[in-house]
Design a protein that fits this description.
about 210 residues, alpha/beta, DNA polymerase, domain 1, two-stranded antiparallel ribbon, 7 strands, about 45% helix, globular
Length: about 210
C-alpha cells in the first residue's frame, strides 16, 4: 500500500515545468526561423485564441496549422509547425520517470492532469516518456488531457471531472502544479495542492506527504 498519511492516497501531476522541462525561448526562435515570428509576439491575441482552441480540442492539429499559416502569411508545412511547437519540450529527466514508477510500485495512485494539446502530447508520449521499455501508460493510473476533456485549468470543473472519472476523493488527493492559480483552483475543489516553483522541487517535497 502507498505510505501516505492516512487521508492521502492519490497524486495528480501537471506536465509542463513539473515533469517536462520547458524552454519557451527555444519555441519562439523556432517559429521565427520558420517565418512565423508574428505568431509568438506576446501581444498576439489571435495566436492565443487558436492555441486555446487547440488546447480545448475545439480544432485539430491540422486546422491549427492552417490558421497559423493564415495569421503569419507563412507557407510552412504542418511538420515544420509541429517541430517549432515542440521545440519548447526539452526533456523528462530519467529520475522523474523512475520516481513515478516507484510511486506506483508502492501502491500510490498516480494521475496526470495537463493543459496540453494534441501536438505537444503526441511528442511527449512518443519521444519523451519512453524509458527502458516503459511507455507513458506505465507511469499513470489515468491520464486527463485538456483537449480530451474540453476543459482547462484553472477552471475548477476540470478537477471535479478528473476526480469523478478516476473515482477518487479530493480529501485523499495531492495535486502538483507549477502555477499558483491552478493550485488554488485545485484547493477550491477540496484537493491538497503543492506549487512546484522550481522544476525539481516536488521530487523531495512530496516526501512530506509520505509516512
Amino acid at each position: 500500500m502507498c505510505n501516505f498519511a492516512s487521508y492521502m492516497k492519490h497524486i495528480i501531476f501537471d506536465l509542463g515545468n513539473v515533469l517536462v522541462r520547458l524552454d519557451a525561448e527555444a519555441c519562439r526562435r523556432a517559429f521565427q526561423k520558420a517565418g512565423m515570428g508574428t505568431l509568438v509576439e506576446r501581444s498576439n491575441n489571435e495566436t492565443r485564441t487558436i492555441l486555446n482552441q487547440l488546447g480545448l480540442g475545439l480544432i485539430t492539429a491540422e486546422e491549427f496549422c492552417q490558421k497559423a499559416r493564415d495569421l503569419s502569411g507563412s507557407q510552412a508545412s504542418d511538420e515544420a509547425i509541429y517541430r517549432a511547437a515542440n521545440a519548447m519540450l526539452v526533456e523528462i529527466p530519467d529520475r522523474k520517470k523512475r520516481r513515478l514508477l516507484e510511486l506506483r510500485a508502492k501502491g500510490c495512485h498516480v494521475y496526470l492532469l495537463s493543459n496540453t494539446n494534441s501536438i505537444h502530447w503526441d511528442y511527449c508520449s512518443k519521444q519523451l516518456f519512453p524509458y527502458k521499455g516503459y511507455t507513458v501508460a506505465d507511469y499513470f493510473d489515468r491520464i486527463f488531457l485538456s483537449q480530451e476533456l474540453h476543459l482547462q485549468k484553472p477552471d475548477p470543473a476540470i478537477f471535479h471531472e478528473a476526480l469523478h472519472q478516476a473515482g477518487i476523493q479530493p480529501e485523499e488527493t495531492l495535486f502538483i502544479d507549477d502555477l499558483a492559480e491552478n493550485c488554488e483552483a485545485a484547493k477550491s475543489a477540496g484537493i491538497t495542492a503543492f506549487q512546484n516553483k522550481n522544476f525539481d522541487d516536488w521530487e523531495q517535497a512530496v516526501n512530506k506527504y509520505l509516512l
